[in-house]
Amino acid sequence: MSQINKILLFIALIGFTIGCKTAAKSTTATNEIKPLPESYSTSKDSTTTASVKWELFYKDQYLKKLIETSLANNYDLQIAMQKIEMARNNVRFTKGALLPSLNGGISAAQRRFGLFTMDGAGNASTNIRPGQIVPENLPDYLVGFNASWEVDVWGKLRSNKKAAIARFTGTLEGKNAIQTSLIAEVAFTYFELLALDNELDIIRETIIIQQAALDIIRVKKEAAVLNELPVKQFEGQVSNSKGFEYEILQQIAIVENKMNFLCGQFPTTIVRDKSKFNTYDTTAINLGIPSQLLQNRPDIRQAELELAASKFDVKSAKAAFYPSFVMNGSIGYQAFNTALLFQSPQSLAYTIFGNLTAPLLNRSAIKAKFNTAKANQTEALLNYQKIILNGYVEVANEISNINNLEKLYELKNQEVYFYTQSTEIANDLFKSGRATYLEVLLTQRTALESKIALIITKKMQHQATINLYKALGGGWQ
Length: 477
Description:
Blueprint: H1 3-20, H2 54-57, H3 61-73, H4 75-97, E1 101-112, H5 118-124, E2 127-129, E3 132-133, E4 137-151, H6 156-222, H7 228-262, H8 293-296, H9 298-319, E5 324-335, E6 348-357, H10 363-431, H11 437-471
Antiparallel strand pairs: 1-4, 2-3, 4-5, 5-6
Helix pairs in contact: 3-6, 4-6, 6-7, 6-9, 6-11, 9-10, 10-11
């Protein structure tokens, strides 16, 4: 080997050594995943209601039909399905990158070499066929195939494929998370409608009672027992209640349109059974153990898959520092005359060669990509821990909420009972002249407010149970 060849080989070895050197490990904070508590504060359950299918959890037939409609028509869910399809295609793309690429083609060219070039001078004194000099304008026809294959020595392409698969599975979990939220939102809205229906009944009953009291006041005014003041005050109270009735009707229209939007349909009347509002069981729910959140909550599983994908991204980015080996080849028929194109073996042409390349001058860009992948991995880890913590906090909040609402509802129920009695007593006393009209006005207003508050408390109980079912991870099964 000559001295020049030795020098070139030495330079090449140094270049490959530099190219193969990976980036130094970046200093990242150690973020160990904190273990979940072994159980919820007051729960000894080993099974969780999250494993119950939504068709069994929700008993109302009208609500079930609305949920089915929303699952079929909701636009957010349809968008999620398209994201799944895009992720599936990305998996196909990364799988295809592992395989050789093969292309077939036909080409035709006309070439002319300058006479003062090596090719032109050589052609001028060379026979292309016996007795025939290479023509100055040389046609070139080719029919054949060419192939290229990057040998995945360091696992870069395999890591890309694994990351794509993890993200594809993550989109499935994302769709499940959207479905869980959608079902909870439909149920939430449904009980909001039932609550408004019951509020409307209460206000209409109250208007009838107030109108009856107003009639008595007018009679007493005509009999000169009372003056015009109580008449106006009672008329004002009736007008106020009627105005409240229209406010509730408007709220019903808004909530119905919200339900229609969730169901992906134009505004229409929502069929429902308002009698189920006060009979629906809001306590039959098993909490299970906190570790079950990792299996039942789609958002946690999606975050876990994103963390796995980010790890594969780091491996792929690290492999970019190593040399890449690409094999190329082509085979086909090539001739300067179409009549000679398929004569074999004279027109048979092929090439095969391999490239081994390592990055030298663009290492800063590769290092930046590697550091970005490391930062993304740390971000995915922190996000995973945050979502786990958030899931546990959501369950803990709803457990406390349900317990406190149960006690609050008992007190509100007693409050309604006492104020209803006080209204009846005030009316009787007023008729016999032993109570003033102001006492009647006050008791009627207070009784109405307490009944509305009782309905709102019951609605909050329903919604807290829905939120707990969702927080445990129920709804996507």
